[in-house]
Amino acid sequence: MSAKLYDGLRLTAHAPDLFQLTRVISTRMRAVFRELAVPVIARNVARVVDDAEVRERDMCGSLHNYLVHRARKLWLDEQAGLDGRVPFHDPLRFSIVFGQIDDKYGTRRLAYPLAGNRAYTDVLMTLEADGRPLFVDYHYQNQADRPDEIHAREWKRRRDDWSRLLDADDRETDGTLGHLPGWQLPDSIEGVFDTVLRGYKDTIDLNMHCDVEDRIRRALNRAVLLHLGLDEVSGISRVLIRNRRIERATEFYLNTADGAAMRRPEPLPDARDLGIAVSELPPVYEPPAGAVARISGLYHAQVLVGD
Question: Taking the complete model, does pTM exceed 0.85, yes or no?
Fold first, then answer.
């Protein structure tokens, strides 16, 4: 049976009991969640503000006519179906389970985080008590050779420990860690916008996480693609090559004097004003036609030289 427990951890002797530990984890992981969620909000609000097609989509029902609800719907629609194993792919999820091994070598408390973003695990590894870490690496996998820095006896002990934790009496959870006690981040993908904005909107600046320069690049790339009127291409590599050429041409133009002087989009709404109706937003930013034509010419120049 293959084992790929890449994120396995062991609690050190400095870690408190599980009740106190989960309190610490809860505080830190919810802070990470907010840090990860704010850029998600900013990007999806920008999509509604900057894209006429997105603004006009699904306008039925008063609820979806408001900016925050439209942005949230974009987020949910984008995540739905990305991972066939679960109803929603949730890149902001986090949970952690714990297990204990008692044998002739002593007691070892193990933990395994299940995270949608590496930032959660990275923060776990920074948790300390009196300057000493609460967690250390205890990963195991049998798909490759043992790491040189881990002694053979230690590697075998890790294998045996995880095998014991994966062995469950319940057939539904046997071979998994599902029978172990743990803690799960209560914030969810469905509530990401409300969870973050409630109580934090006075301290959030969406423009810090989706600045004007990023928005103008997206607007130019979109306008250039439409202006070029290119035929659809098959194959992911061809699509990537075409998009890369457009992005390169856009970047080149923005670094010219004309590009630097080009009119920019208005800032995103303040986080306190996300309840505004979509119909009350300023007009969608339209890049100057001259800039779009110039970038299109730069794109064709790359095609000619096969770059």
Answer: no
